[in-house]
Specification:
globular, 6-stranded mixed beta sheet, binds 2'-monophosphoadenosine-5'-diphosphate, 10 helices, Rossmann fold, 12 strands
Length: 279
């Protein structure tokens, strides 16, 4: 029996077990994937003992994505650059970790908008936390020409731009008018309206008419931000597909087969979030 898990604190809301156990069943693999609640003071112990715990690896979620880096023997270049991890795996008995959030984001855009090309285009990313860094890193790897990074706290946007260089331009959230006419991919990574009652004031009327609008949040499936974008006529990409796509690489590292993200899987998880969901 091959065993993996997801660790976080709290962890009971994680939908990762639904995703991985669906793929294990579908591919006929004798494996298991469960939730493990690991409080911050037990994180080091858990990760350093992973090789002797009978686990092949784990996903790492809030609040451990950044602190977990300290307790991993080898970080890949994505993990080092973004300073955060979501996937831990073993090689020759030692722990390795990566971040698959950026890849999950980009693959989800291509899943929903198959004709979209990252190369040579301009994106605007709202928010300057861990997801923002992972997405910016991935967009640059895929040839995005320019990325405007808008955040309420300018210092955080400036710090990220400093890591990635001249192709990332920091600006205040109040300045979206200036970059919107050339933006053809707009991404919300802020928790405004999700973790609090705030609503982002986004000047959609100024946004390039051919733009795609995406959100990394997926509860509710259509976030207030996506609702506003739809009302202005833009095609939207929800965050749930990113959750599904970020899980693919972890599954293949642990269980040895690359699973597929399907509409059936999407519907199953969407119904777990919103029981009335209709595809
Ligand atoms: P992540 O999950 O990506 O790591 P995070 O580190 O919690 O996210 O960051 C949340 C982001 O949402 C931040 O960019 C935060 O802005 P600040 O850097 O100014 O704190 C942003 N955010 C949260 N509430 C917001 C609000 N009401 N208006 C604007 N931005 C908000």
């Amino acid at each position: 029996m091959i065993k993996a898990c997801v660790i976080g604190y709290p962890i009971k809301h994680s939908r990762s077990p639904l995703i991985h156990n669906h793929w294990l069943r579908e591919l006929g693999i004798h494996g298991s994937y469960e939730r493990r609640e690991v409080p911050p003071n037990a994180l080091e112990d858990f990760l350093t003992h992973l090789p002797v715990e009978g686990l092949v690896g784990c996903n790492v979620t809030l609040p451990h994505k950044e602190t977990a880096c300290r307790y991993i023997a080898h970080l890949d270049d994505r993990a080092r650059l973004t300073g955060s991890i979501n996937t831990v795996y073993l090689r020759q008995g030692e722990t390795w970790a990566t971040s698959t959030d950026g890849e999950g984001f980009a693959e989800n855009i291509l899943w929903r908008m198959p004709g979209y090309r990252f190369g040579g285009n301009t994106a605007t990313v709202l928010g300057a936390g861990g997801s923002s860094r992972a997405i910016i890193d991935e967009l640059l790897r895929r040839g995005m020409r320019q990325i405007f990074l808008a955040n309420r706290t300018m210092e955080k946007a400036e710090a990220i731009a400093g890591v990635f260089g001249r192709d990332v331009v920091p600006l205040p959230l109040s300045d979206l008018d200036t970059c919107f006419p050339e933006t053809n991919l707009l991404v919300n990574t802020t928790s405004a309206g999700i973790a609090n009652d705030a609503r982002l004031h986004v000047p959609f009327a100024r946004l390039h008419k051919g733009a795609i609008v995406a959100d990394v949040n997926y509860v509710p499936l259509i976030t207030p931000f996506l609702c506003d974008a739809q009302a202005c006529g833009y095609p939207v990409v929800t965050g749930l597909g990113m959750l599904l796509h970020q899980a693919v690489t972890g599954f293949s590292l642990w269980f040895g087969q690359r699973p597929k993200v399907t509409e059936d899987l999407h519907t199953m998880i969407a119904r777990d979030i919103n029981p009335g969901y209709q595809p």
